[in-house]
Design brief:
221 residues; mainly alpha; 0% strand
């Protein structure tokens, strides 16, 4: 229970860090993963999951109103799913689940933005009149909604992680193949992001090469 509470609180913090407060980069997958690994007592799994999801996140530039997966709480969930399992297999399962939660987080961010925009429009007259109370109410309300959103995403993710570990365990060669595939795709995604502005065909080639090498490596083991 203490570990679960710690993971929920950590997921809340990294979820808030992306947009609201304190914006000190703890929402980066590498930092979020190591933190979750320490909480679960498996820092190696936390680091491994964090590195792979960080490669995915390198292709994201979270500015303005752009839509993007939310990797902070997703990394916490991924580490919870991978902790205390064989590293060669558990990491792939965790990362796969984390990617799904990251895209759920993307949807939740958009929904929260729309809700906050609605509250800003309702307070438009007071804001135009220079009401400090209205400004504080809108600002704190936005932070509170973001906190509820981050906690909800983390809670659902941890529940799914528990379900995966309990009811649908992936083990053996399948788990190793999944880990290799996730690692290859992560490397290819980071490379595509670096080459995006240069040549699209080359980026696609790197993606296919990374995935192909990972699959061949597993087949030869």
């Amino acid at each position: 229970m203490l570990t679960t509470a710690g993971l929920l609180f950590w997921g809340l913090l990294v979820g808030l860090d992306l947009i609201s407060v304190p914006q000190v980069m703890i929402s980066r997958p590498l930092v979020a993963g190591v933190g979750a690994g320490l909480l679960t007592g498996d820092p190696v799994a936390g680091f491994a999951v964090g590195v792979i999801l960080e490669l995915f996140a390198l292709d994201v530039l979270p500015v303005g109103a752009v839509r993007y997966p939310e990797y902070g709480p997703a990394t916490v969930v991924a580490v919870a799913a991978a902790a205390h399992t064989p590293i060669a297999g558990g990491v792939g399962v965790g990362v796969a689940l984390g990617l799904g939660i990251a895209y759920l987080g993307e949807w939740s961010i958009v929904a929260t933005r729309r809700l906050t925009s609605h509250h800003v429009q309702r307070a438009e007259a007071e804001l135009d009149a220079g009401s400090r109370g209205a400004l504080s109410r809108v600002h704190l309300g936005g932070i509170a909604r973001d906190a509820v959103r981050a906690l909800s995403v983390t809670s659902l993710g941890l529940l799914l992680a528990w379900g995966v570990r309990t009811w649908t365990p992936v083990a053996g060669r399948t788990a190793i193949l999944l880990t290799a595939a996730m690692t290859g795709v992560a490397l290819a995604t980071a490379t595509m992001g670096a080459l995006r502005l240069r040549e699209r065909r080359r980026a696609i080639s790197w993606f296919a090469t990374g995935l192909g090498i990972s699959l061949v490596w597993v087949a030869l083991r």
